[in-house]
Amino acid sequence: MSTRLALDPSGLLGEVYISFWIPAAVLTTALAIKLPSILKLWRDPLLRAVGGLLLFACAVFAFAAPGTIAWTNRVTGVPNIAAPWVYSLLTALSASWLLLVVHWRNGHTDRREQTRRATRWVVCVYAAVVIALWVLFALADVPVEQTRNLDTYYAGTPFMREEILLYLTAHTVACTITTRLVWNWIRTDGLDAWLRWGLRFLGIGYATNLLFSAAKFTAVVARWTGHDLDWLNANIAPSAACIAATFVAIGFIVPHAGQYLQDRWLVRRRHRELKPLARLMRTVVGSREPLALRATAELRLIRRETYIRDALLQLSRFLDEDLRGRTYEAALALGHERGRAQALAAAVTILQAVETGRHAPDGDGGTGEPDTSYLLQEIQAVSEVLRHPDEIKAVRTLAAVPAESMSTHD
After folding, report:
1. What is residue 78's three-state secondary structure?
2. Are 255 and 192 within 8 A, CB to CB?
3. Which CATH class is domain 2-259?
4. Which strand (E) or helix (H) includes residue 215?
C-alpha cells in the first residue's frame, strides 16, 4: 500500500473505493421496477434488451466484488477463473448496451430488417469475444490469485495480456457507440420530459464508463513501460464503474418513477382542487362525502367526483339557463377567455340554484330541461373558480345589469 500511495500524485486516490454492492442494489431496484413490464410484454425486443442489460449489470457487480471473486476461485478450485467469468459478464453487458440502442433507434416497422441485421452482428461479434476470452484463459499461466489487481499483475503474461486487451476493447467500443447514440437521442425533439431526464442519466453513466476503460488501459500500459499505476486499476476503475452503473440504473428508474409520482401528484391535486365544489354540494345533499382513510388516491378522487355529480343532478331542477347565458356574456365582457367565462357562468348558476333550492317548497323546481352536460364534465374548472369569490361577484353584478346595457359590451 505504501508503494502505491507513493506513486499516487494526490496521495489520496489510492484509497478511493466504492462498494460494489451499492450499484448492485440500485440496479436490482431498477430491474424490479421494470420486471412486470418485461414479463407482461416479453415479445417486445426492446424490453428484453432492457431486462438483459439490467440482469447482466447486476451479475457483473455481484461477481466482480473481491469477496465473490475469492469465493468463485475457491469453489471451482481454479486460480483466477473468476477473471474470464467476470470478463464474459462484462462483455455480455457491453453487447446488451448495443442491442438496447439498436432497438431504441431502429425499432420502427420500416427498419425491422436493419434491426435484425444489427442484432445478429452484435450477438455474433460479442459471442465470439466471450469464446475467445475462455480460450485465452485456458492457454494462459495465471497461478497466483489476484482479487483486485489481476489486470495489472498479469499485464505482461502471454495470452492473459491478449485477454485483458480484448475485453477492454470490446467494452470501450460498446461504451463509445452507446454514449454517442444516447446523447444524440437526447437532442431529439418531442421526447417526454421524464424520458429525456432518464436519457441524460444514461448518457452520464455510459460516459463515466469510459473513465473505467481509460483507467484500466492506462494502468496496463504503465506496466508495459515499467511503471506502477496499479491504483488506477484497483481503485479508480472500480469506483468509476460503480458510479457509472448507478447513473445507468437511475436512468432506467427516472422515467417510470417520475411518471408514477407525477400521476400520483396530479390525482391528489385534482382531489384537493375539487374540495370547494364538494363543500358547496354538501349543502345540497345534506351529508358529507364518503370517506375511506385506507382508500387509494384514485378511489378517493372517484368518490369525490361521483359525490359532486350526484349532487349536481339533484340540483339540476333549480338551474337557470337564462342566468347562465347572461353571466357567460358578462364574463366575456369583463375580459375573461371563453373557458374561464364558462366556468364562471356555471359557478354563478350553481350558487343561485343552491340558494333557490334552500327556499323552494318540496317538489318545486324550475321549468324546462337544463343542460347539465358542461357542469358534469367540467367540475374541475367550476371548483377552481369557486376559489375566487371576487371574480364571481363581479360577474354576478354585471349579469344583473339590464340586457340593454349588456349589449353595449358585445
Report:
1. coil
2. yes
3. mainly alpha
4. helix 193-224
| Cβ–Cβ under 8 Å, residues 321 and 350 | no
Burial of 188 (0-12, 13-18, 19+ CB in 10 A): exposed
| 24: Cβ contacts below 8 Å, ≥ 6 apart | 58, 61, 62, 245
pLDDT tens digit string along 93-150? 999 888 888 877 655 445 677 778 888 999 999 999 999 999 999 999 999 998 888 9
pLDDT of residue 366: 52
Rg (alpha carbons) of the chain, rounded to whole number = 33
- Domain coordinates in residue numbering, the chain: 2-259, 278-409
Does residue 320 contact residue 366 with C-beta atoms inside 8 Å?
yes
* 0.90 exceeded by pTM: no
Cβ count within 10 A of residue 21: 15
Q: How far apart are CA 132 and CA 88, in angstroms?
A: 10
Residue with cell 453487447: 95
